[in-house]
Amino acid sequence: MKDSLKWLCGVGALALPLSVAAAPAVEDLTVQSNSLYQQANTRLSGGGTLTLLNQLDEQAQEIARLRGRVDELEYQFKRLTEMSQQRYLDLEQRVSGTSPAGENGQEVDAQTAAAVSGGAGSNASSANASSGGDAQKDYENAFAKVQSRDFDGAIDAFESFVVDHGDSNLAANAHYWLGELYSAKNQLDASAQAFDTVISEFSQSSKVPDAMYKLGLVKARQGKAQESRKLLEELVRQYPDSKAGGMAKDFLASGA
Residue spans with biased composition (Low complexity) (predicted)? Predict the structure, then answer.
């Protein structure tokens, strides 16, 4: 009996190492799984970056195209504005007998030139009766610069006049001449301001109808067609028998 037990124990002792050696090896898949996950993420990340770069490139091209379109529209708008201004200038020349702009665009219209040689001079003379001697002398000096076509000098002289003699009866005329001179030099904002001063601050002056007409033309040259038409229509209503009112009526009828 004891011999049998010893034999069994010996066989078991021999079999145990064999069973252990024959056990299948279990592979650790954690490292391999992490590696595959990282590869998948790398491929996905690379493809996403390429897609994003393509989208950015397409957007950059679209922005460049839109900028080009904006530049084109700005150029077209500028050309239309210039054509509109020229159209009004042509109408003004036909209505009031204005000669085309001279060198550097500086030209005082026919009505103004006539005023320099006579008409405005007589108006100034009547106003001079109630003005001081210094005001009259300064006005005449400024007026002489207009006659000699020294527009820059005339502007400086009339600007000084309205500061030094703002309460003179000649002040309205001085502001009107500033409007004419700035208009001749294509300084339209300054011209509009001068004409508006005549209208708003010297409502009883005989220069108001002329100032309204000229301001209407300046607004047209600025591209403010609706404001121009409204002002000229108001001129026709308020001063229908004035020369300026008649020119405004003709100007509007000409298609302005």
Answer: 113-133
